[in-house]
Request: fold
Amino acid sequence: MLSSFRASLVVFSFSALVLVSAGSYGLTDFIEGQSFYDAFEWETLDDPTHGKVNYVDAETSYYNNLTYASQDTFILRADYKSVVPPQSRGRDSVRIVSKSTFMEHVAVFDVRHMPEGCGTWPAIWEVHGDNWPEGGEVDILEGVNDSGPNAATLHTTPGCSMPGNAGQTGYFTQFDCNYEVNGNTGCSARSDNPNSYGPNFNRAGGGWYVLERTETFMKIWFWERYNPSVPASVRDYSEDIDTSNWGAPFAYFPSNSCDMRSKFQDHSIIINLTFCGDWAGGAYGQSGCPSSCEDFVMNNPHAFTNAFFDFGSIRVYQPYE
Ligand SMILES: *[C@@H]1O[C@H](CO)[C@@H](O)[C@H](O)[C@H]1NC(C)=O
Ligand SMILES: *[C@@H]1O[C@H](CO)[C@@H](O)[C@H](O)[C@H]1NC(C)=O
Ligand SMILES: *[C@@H]1O[C@H](CO)[C@@H](O)[C@H](O)[C@H]1NC(C)=O
Reply:
């Protein structure tokens, strides 16, 4: 009797400790399989970055199998069957935006495969509503030209920059997050893992991208699928997670010279796949890909059979009150 009373006391004080420790969060959104259709809205706008893309609505993407859900899988892809008529906006593809928005949170993206192919420009990112860059943007996984490693990037209004490379395993290619600098390059931290993007990522079975956002920093980790040091809570779909013992992320954005509270407001999660446009189009010339970007994308459907995301799930955790 006494010993079991003691044991439960120990358990109680241990969990009380966990509740107050910084870096401790509980699961609030578990998006898997069919529930992507409830958690996201499909956007059909013209790509603001001038991509050669025709974003379709949810019904069209469902009937044309550009999105496909099974119990533990959600596929989002571009059309790979049709030549695109010259007067069209571009190749059919999908852009989804989460209905919920988030302030402090941890987002865990379990990604088995990401889009690859000449001219592709895929992204997993977060942004605040319509007044961009007010409210800020965080790019978690984004790139062009099939070439990694991945870079994670913040885009903000003027007056936000990063102090250096301390606290991360990656390295900054630009410190200033101000969207006005260098044509909206943003403060961008490149991963040290060559399997963090594109064909290499897919050969490694993908992995987990994780964003932690607090009032004073953002951190982004990537663990590839068979890395033994992926935290068990990330791998095993835990209800609670504690980021404090995860080690250095590849991208660490502290608030030393960036007031995160004013630069970032509530964010939606966005997943999109465009083609060519401002970045992928500009990089195409050095890509070793044939023809011009737009010509290639319009006329070679079979080159896009691997232009798809395969998600195991997206989980969002929020801090305990
Ligand atoms: C739709 O896509 C899924 C995933 O790629 C695939 O398994 C399935 O066979 C496709 N269905 C049709 C009708 O093509
Ligand atoms: C996705 O959409 C947003 C806004 O439409 C755009 O800024 C972004 O560049 C697009 N593509 C990627 C890969 O992020
Ligand atoms: C595109 O990829 C090619 C081949 O990997 C590489 O040489 C080139 O530097 C890349 N260009 C850009 C802009 O990423």
Remarks:
- The longest helix spans residues 2-20.
